[in-house]
From TrEMBL:
InterPro entries: DUF305_CopM-like, Ferritin-like
Start and end residues of each DUF305 domain: 389-446
Keywords assigned: Membrane, Transmembrane, Transmembrane helix
Coiled coil: none
Protein name, as recorded: DUF305 domain-containing protein
Keyword Transmembrane helix (UniProt): yes
Domain of life: Bacteria
Residue ranges of the TM segments: 33-52, 79-100, 129-145, 151-169, 222-240, 269-287, 299-320
Length: 449
């Protein structure tokens, strides 16, 4: 418990990202000492847990957990359905998103569809329609977003939809697998998304700089791979034997809850569904092991199963990325800032204009030149206005944005601590003044640049 990793939400909630960018070679992870240290520690935990589970103490522990969670277990279906409905009411209230705050849409009718899905969940006759609606929202998001990005949400969405269909079934043989569908959905989602910490560790750097307490004082390049191992292996644990999966669920619940306070309500809404399913897994009294039971019951099955999971997911992640984008990747042209969590104005770390170029630029010089090229045209157009007051504001907004872009570039490429501090002060001041100038334009009914 003392050495447990701090909470991490999905990285794309907090940092800019380009899904098509080439991932870090897998060899960099396979030669990372801290990756293997994390794997070794988790294997010890799993093996000890399995050894206890196979002994007479195992059933005693599980029975004790059953007694504690009996009140929830006796109404677990109601709990899961209420949370699913509450989640869709919450994203309806947020508005302008498909399934999470990460997937934005201007279509107002999508929000009303989410409210309809919430209403359909409370009757078994209409639960399959709610499941169809969830899959439909995923397909709509697929139309607007990169397919590789949407794979992060596929397993969870399918798992929830499958639960609603199975829970409504009158066939007891089908219905008994409803919680298993949820477990597999969350497990696959966690294992897949955890690979970002190995493929794109730089996505985490702004988050670690903004909230250094997350690492508990560990160097970022030590913490990030070990955090990735923790997320992958705890996800793997959800599909293993009863004691392993319940302890993994408890650990994940603590981790996800710890993220709520520092990251706020948006994080709670975005991860509420996963957190509720994790609670359901911890409260699940079933002892059945349906997939490869003989392997899971053996101690040797733990390292074999974990190794197989790593091979399958790593091959799938890197292989699919190459199949979609090619070996060199494809950064494309940024169509806007891809962030889900609104950046803290005191610690901005989003991609703005030239900073998006900086993320893929080979050198700081290339990024600075792109920032200046981006600034020059709008600034010259602004100062050409015949009204000197309007010319001042319309010219200064792109000028200030250019300063912000340069400051963010030095945060990416620079190393000097004083420059880093100065850059953050420039960003704070220039953004505040941009806001004041935009407010002036709004009061004067002048079109925004």
């Amino acid at each position: 418990m003392a050495a447990s990793s701090p909470a991490h939400a999905h990285v794309k909630w907090f940092a800019p990202y380009i899904v098509g960018a080439p991932p870090q070679p897998i060899a960099a992870t396979l030669t990372n000492l801290w990756f293997w240290t994390g794997i070794a520690l988790v294997l010890v935990f799993f093996l000890v847990t399995r050894a206890i589970e196979k002994s007479s103490a195992g059933e005693t522990i599980l029975s004790g957990m059953d007694r504690i969670t009996d009140p929830l277990w006796n109404c677990l279906d109601n709990f899961v359905r209420v949370v699913i409905a509450a989640f869709f009411v919450a994203i309806f209230a947020v508005g302008g998103v498909y399934l999470t705050p990460d997937l934005k849409t201007p279509a107002e009718w999508v929000s009303w569809t989410q409210l309809l899905i919430a209403g359909l969940i409370f009757s078994r006759k209409t639960q399959p329609l709610a499941a169809l609606g969830i899959i439909g929202l995923w397909l709509l998001a697929l139309r607007d977003y990169d397919v590789f990005h949407l794979l992060d949400y596929l397993a969870l969405g399918v798992g929830v939809a499958a639960y609603l269909v199975l829970e409504a079934s009158s066939n007891p043989e089908w219905r008994k697998h409803r919680f298993e569908a949820l477990r597999w959905g969350v497990a696959i989602a966690l294992m897949w998304s955890s690979l970002e910490k190995f493929a794109y560790p730089d996505w985490f750097y702004p988050l670690v700089e903004e909230k250094p307490f997350l690492t508990f004082g560990m160097p970022r390049d030590v913490f990030i791979p070990m955090a990735g191992v923790a997320e992958f292996t705890m996800g793997f644990g959800l599909i293993w034997t009863p004691l392993v999966r319940r302890l993994s669920a408890i650990a994940l619940f603590v981790i996800f809850n710890a993220a709520v306070y520092p990251f706020g309500r948006t994080d709670l809404i975005g991860h509420a569904l996963i957190m509720a399913i994790i609670v359901a897994i911890a409260a699940d009294h079933t002892r059945e092991v349906h997939f490869l039971p003989a392997v899971k019951r053996r101690l040797a099955g733990v390292p074999a199963g974990l190794a197989a999971a790593l091979v399958i997911f790593v091959t799938g992640y890197w292989g699919l990325h190459i199949a979609i984008y090619g070996i060199e990747g494809n950064t494309g042209t940024a169509s806007g800032e891809r962030l889900t969590h609104t950046p803290n104005p005191e610690h901005p770390h989003g991609m703005h204009g030239a900073t998006a170029t900086a993320a893929s630029a080979a050198t700081a010089e290339a990024a600075y030149r792109a920032a200046m090229d981006r600034m020059h045209g709008p600034m010259m157009q602004g100062i050409a206005n015949v009204d000197p007051d309007q010319a001042f504001v319309l010219g200064m907004i792109p000028h200030h944005q250019g300063a912000v872009d340069m400051a963010e570039i030095v945060l990416k490429f620079g190393k000097d601590a004083r420059n880093q501090h100065l850059a953050r002060e420039i960003i704070d001041a220039q953004k505040r003044e941009i806001g004041e100038m935009r407010e002036w334009l709004k009061q004067k009914n002048i079109p925004q640049p």
